[in-house]
Amino acid sequence: MFICIEGNIGSGKTTLAKALSKKLKASYLPEKFEENTLLPLFYEDNETYAFPTEYSFLIERQKQLTNHFKSLKKGAITISDFHFDKCLCFAKTNLEPVDFQFFKKHFKPLRKTLPTPDLVVYLDTSTELLEKNIHKRGREIEKSLKQTYLRRLKKTLDKYYMVNGRINTVVLSLTIKEYNASTLETCCKEILEILQKIKK
How far is residue 69 CA from its own chain's centroid? Predict the structure, then answer.
């Protein structure tokens, strides 16, 4: 079984993915965004570095997922804190229309090489709450993020995961109104309930 946790920057994807992995005794697959040396350049000058940054993420994520599933034991569960289709959402937000069309042509064949998740969990979070969470975790690279950018990205992600139904799998949307001791437990409970329905 393959489950992806997806959402905006600072929505709590990693925290939820780790908690769910422990409950299901699953393999946790983190997105390795820190290893992308283009990302800091993109945050400094997004106009110049948008395309090389998005394209590098496309290749890196495809490679990471391919290598993971090659070495995975039969019947094992994987919980990932990213969904490959996020490449398309970020590219649509950050690229000019002509560059995005070129990007899409490369995205589609690469997507076909990867397994389809059994479940995608989308964390629907307000930009105000995202800002608080980003500030709280204090990553240096994210200090320049503006609410206007988070809002544009949210619009793209919401449309992809909550409106258009472009994904050939089950999508569970969880609205996060605050982060407290019970938030994780509530999210895990809802995910486990829908997994039971999927198995049946």
Answer: 18
Q: Is 158 a catalytic residue?
A: no
Determine contact, residues 167/120, Cβ cutoff 8 Å: yes
d(CA 52, CA 41): 10
pTM tops 0.90, yes or no: yes
Q: How far apart are the first and last CA of the chain?
A: 14
Strands (E), the chain: 2-7, 27-29, 78-80, 119-125, 170-176
Q: Which of 81, 85, 99, 158 is catalytic?
A: 81
Q: CA 105, CA 14: separation in Å to the nearest integer?
A: 29
| Alpha-carbon dihedral angle through residues 140, 142, 143, 145, given to the nearest 10 degrees | 170
Note the pLDDT tens digit of each residue in 82-92: 999 999 999 99
Residue 144 has pLDDT above 80, yes or no: no
Give all domains of the chain, ordered by start, each with its CATH number. Answer: 2-199 (3.40.50.300)
Tokens of 85: 């289709």
- What is the rounded distance in angstroms from the CA atom of residue 149 to the CA atom of residue 157? 12
